Amino acid sequence: MKTKDWFTDWFNTSYYHILYKDRNDADAQLFMRNITSFLSLPKTTHILDLPCGKGRHAVFLNSLGYKVTGGDLAENSIKYAKKFENENLNFEVHDMRKPFNNTYDSVFNLFTSFGYFEDDAEDILILENIKNGLNKDGFFVFDFLNAEKVKLNLVKEEVKVVDNITFNIKREIKNGFIFKHISFFADDKQHSYTEQVKYLDLPKMTSFLEKVGFKIENVFGNYSLDNYNPKTSDRLIIVAK
Ligand SMILES: C[S@@+](CC[C@H](N)C(=O)[O-])C[C@H]1O[C@@H](n2cnc3c(N)ncnc32)[C@H](O)[C@@H]1O
User: Fold this and answer.
1) Does 58 lie in the same domain as 177?
2) Looking at the chain, which terminus has fewer C-beta neighbours within 10 angstroms, N or C?
């Protein structure tokens, strides 16, 4: 029998949110300001933030005046995000491998929220769902780690103490994936999880996007929207139509 997918468990734990609690809202907000202004998105734009996690980008985009829907597989994150709902801000549990019930003017896939699946066909299915869920001339914004820089600077072992939990982290790149093995002792138990993200560099991601009929309009290397450099950029940010 197939075990539950790693992302279904790990992202739904409180430990995941503890480990990443220093995740920077200021960065998220800077990026959202820059990208909406670069794309000249009118305030009438309906944006889908997929997957939205606890809604940090979605809530901010809504505060800028946009109508926003956030979808995520993690029920706990959606439950949290729902506290911020209003007439123009909605959250729902959604598996991005499933087609949407609605169409959107823009779809944002932010902060390395892609490439979790073994089979390329699942990644391509997600891109197809996004393409079919976009209104005419809609933008797809994709924000991923810069795999080439990660490979050049791989931190193989790291210890992070957050909220009195000692997280032992090991990283490796093999079989086309970047693995992050996370183990820690908490609540009287030893835990271990592995995050697994496909090694998606610009050529590979371009081939995925082109397969479903997306055309790349811009490539940026960070949240200030500077040019992308495969060796030095922090992020791989793609705008496609
Ligand atoms: C790295 S987090 C980023 C979340 C959010 N974009 C942010 O920046 O805070 C990745 C998110 O993907 C969600 N996720 C994983 N697999 C998913 C799937 N098949 N469908 C929808 N969401 C998924 C996880 O629950 C998690 O919230």
Assistant:
1) no
2) N
3-state secondary structure of 101: coil
Q: What is the pLDDT of residue 2?
A: 45
- Ligand 1 geometric centre to CA of 99 (Å): 16
Residues 134 and 177 in one domain: no
Distance between Cα 52 and ligand 1 center (Å): 6
- Whether residue 230 contacts residue 201, with contact meaning beta carbons closer than 8 Å, is answered with yes
Are residues 218 and 181 part of one domain? no
**pLDDT at position 6, please?**
80
On whether both 84 and 180 belong to a single domain, the answer is no
- CATH number of the domain within which 42 lies: 3.40.50.150
- Residue ranges making up the domain that contains 55: 6-146+201-240
CA 195 – ligand 1 centroid, Å: 12
How many structural domains comprise the chain? 2
Q: Measuring CA to CA, how many Å separate 192 from each of 20, 73, 174? A: 16, 21, 19
For residue 170, being part of any structural domain is answered with yes
Predicted pLDDT of residue 81: 97
Ligand 1 atom with the smallest distance to the CA of 116 is 16
Computed on alpha carbons and rounded to an integer, the radius of gyration of the chain in Å comes to: 18
In the chain, which residues have pLDDT < 70? Answer: 1-4
Contact 69, 49 (CB under 8 A): yes
Q: pLDDT at position 8, please? A: 81
Residue at 1 is within a domain:
no
